[in-house]
Amino acid sequence: MADKVNIVLVHGAWGDGSHWRHIIPTLHNAGHKVVAVQNPLTSLADDVDRTRKLAESLDGPTLLVGHSYGGAVITGAGHAANVVGLVYISAFAPDEGDSLGSIFARTDQPAGAAAIAPDAQGFLWIAPDKFQESFSQDLDDTEALVMALTQKPISGQCFSDPSGPPAWKQKPSWYLVSGQDRMIPPETERWMAERIGARETVELDAGHASLASHPHEVTQLILTAAAAVA
């Protein structure tokens, strides 16, 4: 156990820590201390702060794993002194000054964007009847329905907040591309993986919720990164 790094799993927009439910048991059984953060999704700064504090509370070297918007979060939270690596799962990997909106502006909007709408408080939701086709087209109907009806909305501010200096410039990173992603264009994911100099890039024939539809492959990439930074 002494050589096993801690692993902090960081969910994205429209989700929470339970999105990692198929990943957690294997990492735990491999001897890692695993924690899935529950971020408020109220601003990028709030989410970075919550994740950084959780990472810093752990004793020893820690690997951060972010899905989707969670990639922007680990890019900031990764500056914690005990963080030794970053894993991006179909995730944003911003440079300093980037926002999610500016990254989206590089290409045509992904198909899933049409299903997103704000509520009266400025939080963004995916229409429940469009959730599966937008976010999780390769999940079965039951799992996709539960994801849709338990979605956690994200503040629209999170899409305009600029990122600070990126931890991926100082710490090793890994990237997983979802080749059938309808929430982040796959070509944008490939570009980010190349830009951050990922030590390894894996591409799956998967939708955005690859952490649920392809848990074995996602877990293997995390374990590869954990072994490399141990």
- Percent helix among the residues? 25-40%
By DSSP (H or I, 4+ residues per run), the number of helices equals 9
Tell me what portion of residues adopts beta-strand conformation: 15-25%
Give the overall average pLDDT. Answer: 97
Rounded radius of gyration (Å): 16 Å
Secondary-structure content class: alpha/beta
What is the H/E order?
EHEHEHEHEEHHEEHEHH
Tell me about the largest β-sheet.
6 strands, parallel
Protein name: Alpha/beta fold hydrolase
Domain AB hydrolase-1: 7-219
Keywords: Hydrolase
GO molecular function: hydrolase activity
Could you characterize what this model shows?
The chain is α/β, with parallel strands linked by helices and 230 residues long. 34% of the residues lie in helices and 17% in strands. It contains nine helices and nine strands. 47% of the residues are buried.
Topology:
Blueprint: E1 6-10, H1 24-29, E2 34-36, H2 44-57, E3 62-67, H3 70-77, E4 83-89, H4 100-104, E5 116-118, E6 123-126, H5 128-135, H6 141-149, E7 154-155, E8 173-178, H7 186-195, E9 201-204, H8 210-213, H9 215-229
